[in-house]
Specification:
It is globular, with a radius of gyration of 23 Å. The protein has one domain. It has helices at about 1-25, 30-35, 40-60, 60-70, 75-100, 100-110, 115-130, 130-140, 140-175, 185-205, 205-210, 220-250, 255-270, 275-290, 300-325, 325-330, 345-360, 365, 370-425, 430-450, 455-480. The termini are close together. The protein has 21 helices and no strands. It is about 85% helix and about 0% strand.
Length: about 475
Amino acid sequence: MGIFQKLFKQTVIYGLATVLPRMLSFLLIPLYTHILPTEAYGKIAIVFSYFVVCNAILAYGMETAFFRFFSKESNKDTVVSTSTLSLLLSSILFFAIAMLCKTQIMEVTGIEGDYITLVIWVLLLDALVVIPFAWLRAIERPIRYSWIKILNVAINLGLNILFLKYLGSLTTLFPKLSCIAIENYEINYIFISNLVSSGVTLALLSPFYFKIKYKFDLVLWKKMMRYALPILVSGVAFSINETFDRILLDYLLPDDVADHVVGIYAACYKLALFMTLFATAFRLGIEPFFFTYSENKNAPEMYAQITKYFVIFGAFILLSVVVFIPVLKRVIILNANYWEAVSIVPIILLANFCLGIYHNLSVWYKVTDRTQFGAYISIVGALLTVLLNLVLIPSYSYMGSAIATLAAYSTMMILSYYFGRKYYPVPYNMKKIGMYLLLSISFSILSFYIFDSNYIVSIPLLIVFLVILYTMERKELKQVLKK
């Protein structure tokens, strides 16, 4: 069980690096929904949707390529320097072009001119920390990785609270601050907070840029790019799956309601964050492990067990969040005007659960260097996202977007399992995995959609589910938790 002990330890630490920042940023949801009208929150959600797409493009799969070649190349310094120089040069080129084409970007995206410069700077700073963070994970420095991530969000959170909640009061006590207290400047303050936190993060990671030996290996870079380009396609496709629904809602709905609908949809979407946190923390913990353990003869059996544990914990999170949605929406989304879209939450939770399972299943194309399959599957998901949103939004509004997200992620999960059986068979326990999925989904539907979150029904369903889990897995779970 030593492997599981190490995996669990790293997952917990990386989980803290993911969960604590997200939980800190979670506090921004009550802040935003309390202070900002739904229309303003919708505008912010649209800009951050473009953030996600651009971040995927600017990283262009180099992070995953770095992990792969760092684990198998003997000259690790060359891998570090080549990948760093590649991202450094491409980021500077992007910044120069974007600053020259601000007007055209504004016309294409619809983002207001006041925000464009701030957005471009944040994208540049975020791109420059991709390899330093990946290097910390590769050399197993999760503590440093974690506290920098946490500090980033703490600064962001603190500045948001300062600007949006207390700046007006502070100008009364300190009149000199009136020069930065601008009326109706809330959205700008949000992006300024992001810019400052990103700048501090880069400053903390800057010693990395002074440690490495700047040597660019063209042959190695070409190999890394061949590996990375399918990951780029996958990343862009994932970003489309994750955020493009907001952009399409804004595009397809009438102008007088679009920002409002995007705002309530984006706010209620955040209630599925618990599943996203779990899946992300798990992925950060297992991704380096998948590569380093891939040559072991027992690797397929180990991957199968890891996936089963993921499904067990994910099924519990799915049902637990669904059962307590009435409480969560009141604690997290303070303005009842946003609650209109709460019906999407179980669907988005399940969609992100499927995405987490997909990430676990995707080990087969990463360790066999068939990353093009990841691109193919992601493209299918992105096409489904766009097509179903185009078809469903005019009739079903935000509910159509939620259904499209679930359809895309579940299809990707099924396709990865199908092709994985052919190229890298893993002995998954499909009977148990299927049973846990079916139980959590069925109980969630009964709790939320049939009995309207009646605790007299939903809490006993959660207890029954836990009893079944304990009965089926008590021996193995005791061993894992004990270790």
